[in-house]
Write a structure and sequence with these properties.
2 copies of one chain form a homodimer. By secondary structure, the first copy, chain A, is α+β, with helices and mostly antiparallel strands. Chain A has 16 helices and 25 strands. In chain A, strands 3, 15, 16, 17, 18, 21, 23, 24 and 25 form a 9-stranded antiparallel β-sheet that branches. In chain A, helix 1 runs antiparallel to helix 3 (about 75-95), helix 6 (about 140-160) runs antiparallel to helix 7 (about 165-180) and helix 9 (about 205-220) packs across helix 11 (about 265-280). Chain A is globular. Chain A starts with a strand and ends with a strand. Chains A and B meet through helix 12, strand 15, strand 16, strand 22 and strand 25 of A and helix 12, strand 15, strand 16, strand 22 and strand 25 of B.
């Protein structure tokens, strides 16, 4: 049932434009910076020790005693993996022999840290080999393996180099031996290896990778007390996670019976991504049906308007339907990246624009907001309301930081953003034997396996004309109609095409070299409203222009956002592109009201309001101008 | 600087009317039920073991080994104390030899549990005498002592019996010896003994009680690391409270330098009550100045419109200014009772209506909401928004129960509500040599020490005429003008009196036997608005009629409250008294809108709204008709 697949990352070459600028930032700033961090070369930044861990693990493999040689979180290895993956994708757009040398060097160190039996994890190799595989609940061995598999596949895809690929095939074989052949019970505390094994399977054709992914998905939650039994068998712990929190670890039921998205939101969407990929690869209808329900659970009832997911810091988790607090949101950057992965795999099973809509919403809003515009600082947590003195301060809001801090002790989000942006082509474009799919509008050159080559020119997401020029080949093209675009027109060579839409895709049956496909999208600013079930957004509206959800910041509104409300019947909301503002953006101006200040906590007279112009900027740009109030939703009256 | 004092509880005799019905409920239902619980005589209710603990402690005092004879929380003794206090107050209105016999019996048991040296606490006496006074942070010895002192004073006040009073004087002497004479460092983890010692001082004239109260208030926070040092010295704990959480235990600074209400909200207001009482008793201007700032911190920036305080379950605590989430509120019943205590003591220092306003707001809304209308079940936590499926369910909302459960393991609130209602006369009326003060309008007979006797007749809080008939004596009367009453008139014998108001009190210089004072209050329903700093209430309004804040429940609104909003320019809001509804109440009907249902989480079109009549009931009556939505604040447009 795989209707089509992501394109290879190297088949999208971004050029000028919004996406290009982000990819360039990843190449110029993020990748070098993160490389330096991995090597502990950045002053004033908490020690990462990632590379040193691999070096020490290699010594341990050679029999040296380095028991004190590990530093960091139990999943510290994954930082190296995500960095390699990001670097690999970046190399596809920006060939760079120096960077490639660095990657090769790091891969050599990783390979040296692999045990003879294929085992690879610096925490356990350095600290205590005997503890291997005794703490799947917390140990992150399979999580780290998964990320390294993804890195290996990425680097192989873009460079053809297979050293890390072989290391990880050997590692997969080790895992298979331990958990399948030898029959040790268990499934990953933090899902990730499932989706990675699927990639490794496709890159190598190694059937055991597919089997192993299927194994992990099939056994999950069948013995829901596995973690409890595991805890009883060992005398050590990492943090002491609650083994009976089935929701947290998505282990309360077999996955085919899980219909509500629960628990740690990153774990959840990584798991669902693997499930969706396996379902489409193996034509598992029951599994796919569960994936559809889980996708709906998230996007119909548990997702912020910014594409953020995870309503609470407690367990970094989903809560319940329609519970979407703006100020205490968790909405981890990694979770929205994972949601893109999940949506992309679902899209492969069915070309339905709802999947692309979610991918686009998550990417242009929460994922991009995760990174400062200069690429130097990152948010884990992406609240939809920030109030200085409350956010980051109140005991209930400690996690909702009002400005991006530097590198974190747990550095999961920064390299995740890097790999996501560097590989955006995979999510933007898809293909099968007959059809080229356009899911997201990303400027650049796209080469499909069919021989069709398109060149995309657009000022998207700030302009709403997207031109695809057919450079080579011919064939069928499918273009997603975004949910926010009430107007949608397509011309080929200037001639309006009769609409032929199915599940939100406009199919152009035949385009050929020289053709110019012009897509016209809705350029009007829209107000967006939440269901009345979402208590936090009662009586409120947010602004959206194209795929960009807007927010209102103190910096543009006399420092006081809480006093503002939108006018229900205001004039059309508009704005002009300003290349000097926030890296180039459109600030919107909307009619609204500003409530006069009161010195009383409560008053029996409604405070007078004065008409005012409310200035809004895209959510992804928030928090780039110092401490201030921010709101996505404002009351409307 | 004590301008006047509370009246003796036995000098208010409630008769027919709202307060009477509540006091009758306390007598008929709450006191007998709680007595049975203390004696473990209620089937299906978690074992209390309170009385058994005293019996076992008496055995321990006699030298028997009963080390396993304690059950319950470390502060279990206080349940007995609060019950005696409630019973004592109730006896003032409802003489009842049977009840008095029960109290005497319980007091005998308590007296028998007192050690020869005056020590009295079943937890330590039963479990390990050696641990006495080694854990002021968590041990609640001073807290339990304080409640028992309050009980002793109350029972002495209403019956003249002094057995418990003597027990507690001896106990106070023991505490004085240990902490003052012998100079052991320390101050109470949970403040309470300070306010109780002030009462004990006034009841007995024992100067050492005053000194001891002053000692605890003076040393608090001077060595802010006292608890940390204490933890280091012992090898046991109760829960392992964080000794360095200065906010939680109000110990970060000397109390005269504390200006923001912080930490555990019940502890906070109990402390401030003791401080205010000491300040006025000793004319300590610096201490009073701190109390004023703390009172403002609470009521100007950290109090719900219902008089609830404590914005978070984390530490059952205050958070930061203007952070007043409705759905995750803690707003513990006990905290609002404590706020009444604090306001009442502040009122004694200065006859300013703002203190009475807060007392009235807390009492008629949060305190009464704490108890089910039948007196059988109680809320600890009093949220201002309840959504079935979220409240009590989501991990962030576990504490916000949508319906009142039965007796709790930690049974602090139910007996606290009982003693508060049973003694409401003390808060309603005050006096000094020249003036009789009317703070709250409570129907019944009030006998002032001056010989002035008033009889109050009113349908308050549902009717807004309050008549005071002078039965005996003559003198000056001061009547509080409530903040919500924009109209306020007084007639004596049918003749309008010229207004003579000072700080919200209308002074009648001379009334005499036979005079009838008629107070006319504003009978109009008002909308109330929060400052724009309160993010949770942006764009919203609540309804208030008299002192009663209203809420909107699903039961009256087709089960769907989230879809409702008030019309900014609707017709006057009104309602009729219905004696059959919720124990007799006025349901209000307000013009508003109901948003049509959407199947989408987000829509680009505003959902159509239909005009509708919104029904609201007093907040204190909420949750008496099963599971349903509830909101105090609704958007207004």
């Amino acid at each position: 049932m795989k209707t089509h697949r992501q394109i290879d990352v190297k088949n999208f070459e971004s050029r000028e434009g919004f996406i290009y600028r982000y990819q360039k930032l990843i190449k110029d700033v993020v990748i070098p910076y993160q490389y330096a961090v991995l090597h502990d070369q950045v002053e004033g930044v908490e020690k990462s020790h990632v590379v040193a861990n691999f070096e020490n693990a290699a010594r341990a493999v050679r029999g040296e005693d380095v028991r004190d040689g590990f530093y960091g979180m139990v999943f510290q290895d994954s930082d190296a993996a995500k960095w390699i993956e990001a670097a690999a994708y970046s190399l596809a757009t920006f060939p760079d022999p120096e960077l490639e040398k660095k990657v090769d060097g790091l891969i050599d160190k990783i390979a040296a840290a692999q045990d003879e039996d294929g085992y690879l994890n610096t925490y356990f190799t350095i600290k205590d080999k005997e503890k291997r595989w005794t703490n799947l609940l917390e140990g992150h061995e399979l999580y780290c393996a998964g990320h390294m598999m993804e890195a290996a596949v990425a680097y192989y895809e873009t460079t053809g180099k297979d050293k890390l690929l072989k290391v990880m095939q050997k590692n997969a074989a080790h895992i298979y031996r331990h958990l399948v052949t030898e029959g040790h019970e268990g499934y990953p505390g933090h899902p990730e290896v499932e989706l990675a094994l699927m990639k490794l399977y496709r890159a190598t054709g190694d059937q055991k990778c597919l089997e192993l992914a299927k194994h992990f998905i099939d056994v999950r939650g069948v013995n829901r007390d596995f973690y409890k039994q595991e805890v009883e068998k060992r005398d050590w712990k990492v943090w002491g996670n609650d083994a009976s929190d089935y929701d947290y670890q998505q282990s309360g039921k077999p996955v085919r019976e899980q219909f509500d998205a629960t628990g740690h939101s990153v774990r959840a969407v990584y798991l669902y991504t693997g499930m969706a990929d396996l379902a489409s690869e193996t034509e598992d209808q029951e599994l796919l049906a569960a994936c559809k329900k889980l996708f709906e659970s998230i996007t119909d009832r548990r997702m912020y308007v910014t594409g953020g997911i995870g309503s609470t810091v407690l367990g970094e988790a989903f809560t319940v339907d329609y519970n979407l607090p703006n100020d205490t949101a968790y909405a981890e950057t990694c979770a929205s990246i994972g949601l893109m992965f999940f949506a992309s795999r679902m899209l492969e099973t069915e070309a339905d624009s709802k999947y692309g809509d979610v991918m686009e919403r998550a990417f242009y809003n929460t994922v991009l907001a995760g990174m400062q515009l200069d690429g130097k600082k990152f948010f884990y947590v992406n609240p939809l309301e920030v109030i200085p003195g409350v956010s980051g301060v109140a005991v209930t809001h400690k996690h909702d930081l009002p400005v991006r801090p530097g590198w974190y002790t747990c550095a999961c989000c920064p390299p995740n953003v890097a790999r996501c942006i560097a590989s955006i082509g995979k999510y933007a474009y898809g293909e099968n034997e007959t059809t080229a799919y356009i899911h997201l509008f990303a400027e650049g050159k796209i080469s499909f396996e069919s021989g069709l080559v398109l060149e995309c020119e657009t000022g998207y997401p700030y302009e709403f004309k997207v031109a695809y020029r057919v450079i080579e080949g011919s064939g069928r093209v499918a273009i997603r109609r975004p949910d926010w675009s009430s107007k949608f027109g397509i011309c080929i060579n200037g001639v309006q095409v009769q609409e032929q839409c199915e599940k939100g895709y406009w199919y152009l049956d035949y385009v050929k070299e020289g053709d110019v496909i012009e897509v016209s999208l809705d350029d009007r600013v829209k107000k967006i409203y939440a269901s009345s079930r979402v208590a936090s957004d009662s009586g409120c509206a947010a602004l959206q222009r194209g795929p960009l959800v807007y927010c209102v910041e103190g910096a543009d509104n006399d420092g006081d956002v809480l006093a503002l409300s939108y006018a229900e019947k205001g004039a059309a909301i508009a704005g002009e592109y300003d290349s000097a503002l926030l890296g180039g953006t459109v600030m919107l101006t909307a009619d609204g009201y500003r409530s006069q200040k009161s010195t009383s906590l409560y008053t029996y007279e409604k405070l007078k309001t004065d008409p005012c112009a409310i200035k809004a900027v895209p959510y992804y740009t928030w928090g780039n101008r110092g401490l201030g109030e921010m709101r996505v939703w404002l009351p409307e009256k």
